[in-house]
Design a protein that fits this description.
The protein has two domains: 103 residues, no CATH class; 150 residues, Multidrug-efflux Transporter 1 Regulator Bmrr, Chain A, CATH 3.20.80.10. It is built from eight helices and nine strands. The radius of gyration is 22 Å and the shape is elongated.
């Protein structure tokens, strides 16, 4: 078995190092193709060498340096080094199954997006997203998510404003604390020209300027540990790209209600960013 597996050693040795890159529109067809090929592979009963070979071929359509490609490459390298073919095959197929879920996931759209908002692109890949001017109604989360939800819902209901997705939550740290937590919840208006007839105490309507955001999509619940892990990845990308700087609080964008099964929910962790101001002026 080792002789057969090491026939792929040159391919595996040339794999890119783990590095987050920004998702490009041109990456999407390759993701779809790889997801379909890996899904078909998991339905077969191939041995370990054949599984590695077919998975490596499928991975060629994934963009070099993308998170999906790095995950696949690492799984193949680990399987290639194993002396236990049975255990390695089982582990590899499990990891391929997880990757297929990410590549083929499509979120449930429970409401319309605000005008001009970017739609879903891909799970687990960093995106640079452009957001237009938008209007929203927001309130603090002193009473938790339920305590914030109902005043916002009553506001849009009493004004005849349609519910949209996503629901935005801004994360900040309390005075004297370093750990961030969701502090503000907001419902976004479908159109920035909407003007409510009345606004109750405890909520406020604000207009947000056009902005750019660094974004990471994920499946499941926006638990604090998951949000922090995704935030760390975004901050890691910013450290590698000093031409950008954070311009607003960390935020999550939630697209599904608790009525949707946990493994079908989708959310994004985002950092608003802007071009950094040069510290030195170079005269040419």
């Amino acid at each position: 078995m080792r002789t057969v597996l090491w026939s792929f050693s040159l391919v595996l040795a040339g794999m890119a190092a783990a590095q987050d890159r920004v998702l490009l529109p041109t990456d999407l067809p390759g993701r779809e193709q790889a997801g379909a090929e890996l899904q078909a592979l998991l339905k077969s009963r191939t041995d370990l060498p054949t599984t590695i070979a077919l998975a490596a071929c499928a991975g060629v359509t994934l963009a070099p340096g993308s998170t999906a490609r790095v995950r696949l490459e690492q799984a193949l390298q680990q399987a290639n080094r194993s002396d236990d073919e049975v255990a390695a095959r089982a582990k590899l197929r499990s990891e391929l199954g997880d990757l297929v879920e990410v590549l083929t996931f499509r979120p449930r759209q429970q409401a319309e997006l605000p005008t001009g908002f970017p739609g879903f692109a891909a799970v687990d890949e960093i995106e640079l997203r452009d957001y237009p001017i938008y209007r929203m109604v927001r309130t603090t989360m002193q009473g938790g998510s339920t305590g914030a939800f109902w005043p916002l819902f009553r506001h849009i209901e009493s004004n005849g404003i349609a519910m949209t997705t996503p629901v935005q939550m801004d994360w900040q740290s309390k005075a004297g604390e370093t750990q961030e937590r969701p502090m503000v919840m907001a419902f976004l208006y479908g159109d920035p020209s909407i003007t409510p007839e009345r606004t109750a105490d405890g909520v406020e309507v604000v207009e947000m300027p056009a902005t750019k955001a660094l974004s990471l999509g994920a499946i499941g619940d926006d638990r604090r540990d998951r949000v922090e892990a995704l935030r760390d990845r975004l901050q890691g990308w910013l450290r590698q790209h000093p031409e950008w700087e954070v311009s607003g609080p960390l935020r999550t964008m939630g697209y599904n209600s608790p009525m949707v099964a946990r493994d079908q929910r989708y959310f994004e962790v985002q950092l608003p960013i802007r071009r950094s101001t040069p510290t030195d002026t170079v005269i040419r």
